[in-house]
Amino acid sequence: MVQALGVDIRMLFTLVFAAGAAMAGLAGLMIAPITEASIGMGNEILIVAFVVIVIGGIGSVQGAFFGAMLVGLIDTLGRSFLDDFLRLFLSHQAAETSAPAISAMLIYILMAVILTLRPQGLFGVRSS
Questions:
Q1: DSSP designation for 82
Q2: Dihedral of the alpha carbons of 13, 15, 17, 22, in degrees to the nearest 10
Q3: Which of 56, 59, 75, 96 is a plausible cystine mate for 64, CB 3.0–4.6 Å?
Q4: Could you read off the pLDDT of 10-68 as tens digits, one per residue?
Q5: Are 114 and 122 in contact (CB under 8 A)?
Q6: CA-CA-CA-CA torsion for 50, 123, 68, 45, nearest 10 degrees?
Q7: Helix ranges restricted to H, 1-128
């Protein structure tokens, strides 16, 4: 509709992208003196975001929402209660040692289980 009024949509998209990139660069410039800036500083977030998208189903906003809720719940419960649960089966020292490692793997185990049962993700569309 805006294009029918004479607005160049391609130029508008280019300008909006450039403005967003400029604001992201400015935010990085402002936060760099406060925190450390390094090459791989966003890798942890990117990997978890990838897990969320794969669990929810690629291309599904509803799947991304439920995948994020599921990953957050599993991660938080694993960090909070896994050592207490493991004490039922293992010694105190073994439970305290293995709980952090297992809780860090829980979201990847969840992703592997979901991909085994539903390769397209929770809300993904099955491709023919």
A1: H
A2: -170
A3: 56
A4: 999 999 999 999 999 999 888 888 887 777 777 888 899 999 999 998 888 898 999 99
A5: yes
A6: 10
A7: 9-31, 43-56, 61-86, 92-117
Whole-prediction pTM: 0.67
Task: Tell me the one-letter amino acid at 77.
Answer: L
Distance separating alpha carbons of residues 28 and 22, to the nearest angstrom: 10
Measure the CA–CA gap between 106 and 78, rounded to whole angstroms.
7
Token couple for 98: 């293995």
| Ramachandran quadrant class, 35 (left: phi over 0; alpha: psi -120 to 50; beta: rest) | beta
Domain ranges of the chain: 1-37, 43-117
Q: What is the pLDDT of residues 73-118, one digit of tens each?
A: 998 988 888 888 888 988 888 888 888 888 889 999 999 999 999 9
Q: How far apart are CA 74 and CA 6, in angstroms?
A: 51
Cα 84 versus chain centre, distance: 27
Distance between the two ends of the chain, CA-based, in angstroms? 35
